[in-house]
Amino acid sequence: MSRLSFTNLPVAPEVDPHALSVGMVHLGIGAFHRAHQAVVTERAAVATGDTRWGITGVSQRSATVRDQLAPQDGLYSVLERGLGEPSIQVIGSIRDVLTAPDDPEAVVARIADPAVSVMTLTVTEKGYRAAGTGLDLNDPEIQADLAGRPPRTVVGQLAAAIARRPEPLTIVSCDNLVANGPFLRKLVGEYFEALGKVPEVFEATRFPASMVDRIVPATTEADRAEAARLLGVRDEAVVVAEPFLQWVIEDDFAGDRPAWERGGAVLTRDVAPWEQAKLRMLNASHSMLAYLGALRGYETIAEAVRDEELARLAQQLMTDDVVPTLSPPAGLDLAAYGETVLERFANPALKHRTRQVAMDGSVKLPVRMLGTVRDRLTAGAEPRTITLAVAAWMVYVHQTPNLDDPQAPRLKSAIANLPTTSPPPAALVDALLAVDSVFTPDLRDSTVFRDLLVDHVAALTTHP
Ligand code: CS2
């Protein structure tokens, strides 16, 4: 079967890719970006006829996406899997892909290009190389960038490009982090300080916060086969997504930007309430289902949420522990939102693996769970259900041989002295609570939190 390309185009993208010039760069061109910002950017171009917003995607590590997209003229499809028949759409907004390890200088040059006025990034929690609330200056990659090589870290790339630009840039973080934009600004500022020179243009560079939402599981061979069936040509770069898509962006830009609001995004003054509701409700219950589900042997999130007990716990986590900590944005009904979240998780066509969501827990937990724990403890409440989710992570860390986590060596060495089967619950809890890159002293020192953890770990190790 032939391959999707300009000359093999069964369903044309809504935008004419030939007409687009590159005005935007995206760092971290994984499946999520291709199913989210690239789609909204294309819809905005279609709605406005503005041809300035073709995208240069940057792979931070592997050349896989570039190698998939290059023979396809940058074209790929989004396979939408909802409750009915799947549907497919070819997207043309990504115009080229650079791979940072092959040519780090080309990445900086592209971001510094005056035709580029805006960029987005999805580099995952660990891509920020933070320790606590600041840049991890002990990170060897950050140190190597600071020492002057063509930068390879995200913060190093941004700093180098900002310093080279005459005009300020707008950098939109699209990762699941609290106050992602301001956080990134702080990290870049600390990088400049470590270099000993803060360029003038940094002051005018904008870092709006944004909340992104769409469930995008890793593509499987079955998805590629389905795409081929629907398209009549093969697409090696197809991405799978649920129908739901949301993007709320702080309206704070230094220069021109795509009219994303015409592509379905919401531009607003304050993203924080949206972001907090999403991280604490959706992402926390997602992680809970991932850890508890994996411990019960469920392969996918949909299977986990079909387990009535797990569904009830996810619901309880949201209503009992999270909702009391939130000030919802006007127009968002939290109870209805929680129900929609569980319905979305139950989508049987998505096959989102529990192990995929369980990845990188050491950097996800502080963002999506521990803020809730802290707020509830401060209010004098017992955060019972969310603590079960943290306990499930602890047991998962102990039981998983090849833990997929940037801090796996540290976590595994913290528990190295424990028996591999049936560790004493208090010993497991204390060993992991002591990892200070995950748990801050206030949490470590809370006897309420510790006692709950020990109870839950004891229960989970007997009946997962
Ligand atoms: C998930 C998210 O993998 C994970 O940690 O919780 O990727 C989740 O699917 C998205 O944030 C949904 O918007």
Automatic annotation (TrEMBL):
<protein>
    <submittedName>
        <fullName>Fructuronate reductase</fullName>
        <ecNumber>1.1.1.57</ecNumber>
    </submittedName>
</protein>
<keyword id="KW-0560">Oxidoreductase</keyword>
<dbReference type="InterPro" id="IPR008927">
    <property type="entry name" value="6-PGluconate_DH-like_C_sf"/>
</dbReference>
<dbReference type="InterPro" id="IPR036291">
    <property type="entry name" value="NAD(P)-bd_dom_sf"/>
</dbReference>
<dbReference type="InterPro" id="IPR050988">
    <property type="entry name" value="Mannitol_DH/Oxidoreductase"/>
</dbReference>
<feature type="domain" description="Mannitol dehydrogenase C-terminal">
    <location>
        <begin position="270"/>
        <end position="452"/>
    </location>
</feature>
<dbReference type="Pfam" id="PF08125">
    <property type="entry name" value="Mannitol_dh_C"/>
</dbReference>
<dbReference type="InterPro" id="IPR013131">
    <property type="entry name" value="Mannitol_DH_N"/>
</dbReference>
<dbReference type="InterPro" id="IPR000669">
    <property type="entry name" value="Mannitol_DH"/>
</dbReference>
<dbReference type="Pfam" id="PF01232">
    <property type="entry name" value="Mannitol_dh"/>
</dbReference>
<dbReference type="GO" id="GO:0008866">
    <property type="term" value="F:fructuronate reductase activity"/>
</dbReference>
<dbReference type="GO" id="GO:0008926">
    <property type="term" value="F:mannitol-1-phosphate 5-dehydrogenase activity"/>
</dbReference>
<feature type="domain" description="Mannitol dehydrogenase N-terminal">
    <location>
        <begin position="24"/>
        <end position="261"/>
    </location>
</feature>
<dbReference type="InterPro" id="IPR013328">
    <property type="entry name" value="6PGD_dom2"/>
</dbReference>
<dbReference type="InterPro" id="IPR013118">
    <property type="entry name" value="Mannitol_DH_C"/>
</dbReference>
